[in-house]
Amino acid sequence: TGNTATKSVTYDSQYGTLPTPTRNGYTFKGWNGKNLLNIDKMTNDALINNNDGTYTIWYKSTGRYGEYFDVDIPENTKLIMNYELLEYNGTYPAPLQIVGIGDGNAFYIYDKNSVKNVNINISKIRIYQEGTQPIGTYTKFKNLQLEEGATATPYEPYYVTSSTNVTQDKNHILKAKWKMNTYEITYDLQGGTLAS
Predict the structure, then answer these.
(1) Once rounded to an integer, what is the mean pLDDT over residues 3-9?
(2) What is the pTM of this model?
């Protein structure tokens, strides 16, 4: 909630110039549209950014989960996941899975293009490789998108920029994403000392 502004855009054309808002105590990170996953914040030794627009989720001896990403997905939200599968050396029917955590419970999404109705308030989410598969199982993919609704729509990156193509054929919202600033203070003791 807060201040809003509008602009007209055309489906399958670039967004064009987007504003850069300011907020006291925060740094503006960018505009987020429909994709709920910022995968670049979820990478680690198991979830690898291949630096060519593709990613690989591994089942390694050291782990099979990507890092958690903070979200705010309320109960009773409909979610749908989609991605482009490039390589998979496992046999489990779901090459890539997502788990959401909230309210002390877990919510799982296994299938592409299958609508899931969330039964918890999800506060964080991560990608993982199926644990019944052998160590060394991997899935290479690109264009992973988790979005609200009952129909998968064309891929959109987490951050929408001026050169991003409009993939929603309806009125929609871009949300400003912020990082809270931290500051350093200096103690001027005015001749005093600090206890050790």
Answers:
(1) 91
(2) 0.89
